[in-house]
Q: What sequence folds into this?
């Protein structure tokens, strides 16, 4: 079973059960973005986590094993076309140089890790229209000099 | 004066004065990411804001006017090569489908605006290594049905 | 059932029934462009709308549910090759800077939303040859300053 | 004088005079989108029109002649990055198949001309936020069978 | 039946019958390039024409109907690799600016229509080697000024 | 002097003299498309031809020599954006497979040369609108078997 | 049977029979590169040649006919990734301008035909390591002036 | 002095002296393709060779030194547009798989080196039209197994 | 059996047996990177090596033969998206010019062979976090002058 | 002074002084690859290091300051054309999946950092031809689960 087949099996079971990522995340005891990312073949679960997810969805067979296997990550189009994803891409590209300068001002030469990294999505109420708040939280990695 | 020339003039003055975006942001009375984005030709200031910035940097001539002129925004490479920017791009692409599903679960069909949008960069102390925390905060826009 | 299968099922039923998008739009009580866009997997219907469409086409099973599921939108070729679509693309690209300036003159810095957006296609009689008139109608969104 | 130099000269004079495309359009006696498109090197003016524009802007030399010379049209990036232009591109791509079907239902096999074509930008008041309304109006051209 | 399946069915029958496009064109009463283009899913036939073609080839079922359905035209590679097609592409690109200038000298600002358009392929005898003569014949369309 | 500088010098002199390619072609004693193509750096003239052209335009210096030097031909964008050139590209791509089949039916396996090649542009009167007629005329080259 | 299926059938039979292109070329009475190119769907055989090849490989059905049918040639990746093919590509690109100049010095303005063309691959013994010697041999085609 | 400036200086002197690559190659005592490739910044000369070339062309200053400096090789367009270069590219791509198989049949798994490599261009007389014969001659490099 | 099917069969057997590349490499008597590369269709084994691998994995049929057949190597995306592979790509691109200069300083004009080449992956303990150490080891190939 | 100008100034002084990266590295007290990478605008030096380098090269003005400024890293072509760099790219792409699997076998899910990273180039004597040995040495970063 490859990761595409695993994702299809999980999404199918999730739809049939009518469960949200938030509900599944509670079952696994981890955060929703991370749990979803594992199911999309972008991260690996530990054995217990994979078991908890598959129990919640009634999945057996190769799914728990594949959830623990390191995937080859890819995302097809280098520029996303879906409007929700494009807006994220656009925000990163437009504000990229500003963010880069501020990281360097606050930390020196280095980057925000995308590996020692976590991410959250929240809904914040606002009388002018509720807001999507996405938090990117990565360890600062300074460049090594050698 | 076009926006590239404006950016060069501002960065040059900023370096000569040894000022940070945070210091300039205080002078303008706005947030650092936004002030930097205007200086990179990605947003427009109001007259007072442009004046405050130029006073702080000792800039005259066409700079204040150009800061108020709507720019044609672009970012060259569709996939950034600078490692700091690439990590942001990578995080967005890897977690994109997960974020998309969570927005739809919390809000229904629609997107996070990149126009009614704000963004912050923070340094968060952590004994295992301080962390870069970037907040994307945009109004939810539901798709219109007509 | 994914959105490609849904589109194929709907187009097949539409052809067999010999119905136009205009007729289907009347059944659903919404506009033709929007109804067609849902069927092409580019928008989501409410439950009643999906039911009305499927009743008109004699479709059952997963189609009504998939019509209500947020799709991942994409359009393959970044530059369309079909002549009708290419002419639309060409018109947007050739007149893009002019349109941009006029929006800024009339509204200030911001954009026309493609989310709070509607679109119509009309045939206008003309003695020199009837004309296709396409109306793009989106809410103006001013850039937030923060 | 090539068309890029012509555009730069016109935009410079327009800014110095503080005139809008609407004001210039009135001087020329044509519509604003079309007048702007000529100044961006995307269309050609007749001699009288070029003269009226240059008189309004105080321009002489090669500008009037270049305004009457057929340009080689191009727009650089095949997918625009400026958010205002990208939204237009996105709207055309997402609703393209729907628009195509409706044109064929109303007219048969053929296209909307981008040559025998006109375009308008309007501001429409709306209590929920004013709207940008863009009208694309092109002659229907049926495919010739031979 | 989509247009790819239609093309495959027609080419298969054409090969089995050992008929040329010229012979089929005679049956349909139209020119060979146009008849072939319909069979490649690049144009639509009228009902009589589709019937005549299918009778000649012994085809039934959905083929006649699909021949009358507006196709979504595309050609895959933006630059063709087949040597015969590449030479056509090369000739157009190398002589493009020259052809453009001559059209403008003879007609003014406008284009040759690719819609109100016809095309012929001929073999012309020549003692130094026979020649392929291809004629592109399209209506001149002047740009509208508005 | 490179070919870009040569082209600029010729176009400048041609504009100042107000001469057309047809008039220059008469001076050189060759056809207009070919003469223009040499001036665009896409073909080489013989010494007499280069001299005749430069005499007609009042050009001296390196121009006649550069007109006789083999250029490195290129055309920038692999897909042209100028509408007149795009229509030629589109016509070739849409009718390419049909033209290919007809050449093979009439000649066997081989191609139309783009080297032993000539091309003409004509205006043909037509009560429904005059037509642009472009003739591509190249020697048939059969594939060698070895 | 399309050309991909033909190639697969021939390669399969060749492997089962354990025959080399050189052995097959002897059976057909032509050179190995050319015979292999026909089998890869890049050239067409005459009836006798196709029959000889199929007899040697024990192939029947549509293979001999498809070997005689003009293929639509293509090679997928515009830059090859296989190291052997990439080295050929690299050699052509690095030495391209030098080769071009030498052809023009020896022949004048024109090209080496890739149609009236033959190619050989030889192994040449060398005490420092045997060498691959590839010969490209094409008719010189002078540009026509008209 | 970078390699582009060196190439420009050499080509300019070569044109002024009216010398061919063959004549220069004789002065340097090496083959014409290689000498030209050094001048195009694609290979490095030894000190004596650079001196001989510069003496023949009357060049001084940084040219001899730059001829000995390892260049960063590049060729711009990944697919060449000049017809002479495109034909070479096309021949390599069309016959690539055939050549690859023959190299493997004759040598086993490995490649033809493009580094321990030489290349010649010859004119071969032929009553049906003289032929361009290009020889690619590279050491066979077997893959190492480890 | 093509190389993709071979790879799938090997990976499937490897997973079922729960064997690592290191364990398989020991069975074959070669290094792990090389053994894995053969299984991914990027190198060819000798008969004994292929037999040893297939014995260890319980594979029969065409697998041993395909392991000995020269593959057509390719890697899909020219820029890898998987983060582990992207970091390798990034390191090569960022330090490329530095590495190039150092090779030329130490060896003169030439390259590191990727054919007479070996590669190792090691884990090196480090109190600040263990390190991945990858060694690229290729024969220096000097450019031939001819 | 931007980083391109800084690189040009350093390379120019380095050539005039006839110094190697190894000699400069000794002056700075760091490794040659890293020192070169700073000079190519790919890393930042500390104040002392920049001073030592500039003293060795006789450089003043903005160079030491620019060496300490965080650069925006980029490398132009996504696939390098220079043969030395291409071989590195090729080796990474061909052995990428094998390396990835071995890292996961030895460390679990994670990557080799390209930030906490060092790199060395060595010449290793070998009777069959000396070898280039390049060492990539980066900290292992495990994916965070959250």
A:
């Amino acid at each position: 079973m490859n990761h595409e087949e695993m994702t299809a099996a999980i999404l199918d079971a999730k739809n049939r059960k009518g469960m949200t990522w938030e509900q599944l995340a509670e079952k696994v005891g981890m955060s929703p973005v991370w749990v979803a990312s594992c199911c999309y073949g972008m991260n690996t679960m530990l054995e217990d986590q994979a078991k908890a997810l598959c129990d919640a969805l009634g999945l057996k067979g190769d799914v728990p094993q594949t959830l623990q296997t390191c995937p080859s990550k890819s995302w097809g189009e280098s520029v996303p076309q879906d409007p929700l994803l494009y807006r994220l891409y656009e925000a990163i590209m437009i504000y990229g140089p500003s963010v880069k300068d501020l990281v360097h001002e606050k930390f020196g030469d280095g980057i925000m890790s995308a590996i020692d990294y976590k991410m959250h999505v929240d809904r914040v109420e606002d009388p002018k229209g509720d807001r999507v708040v996405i938090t990117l939280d990565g360890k600062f990695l300074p460049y090594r000099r050698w």
Summary: Residues 3-67 of chain B form a domain with the 434 Repressor (Amino-terminal Domain) fold (CATH 1.10.260.40). The radius of gyration of chain B is 18 Å.
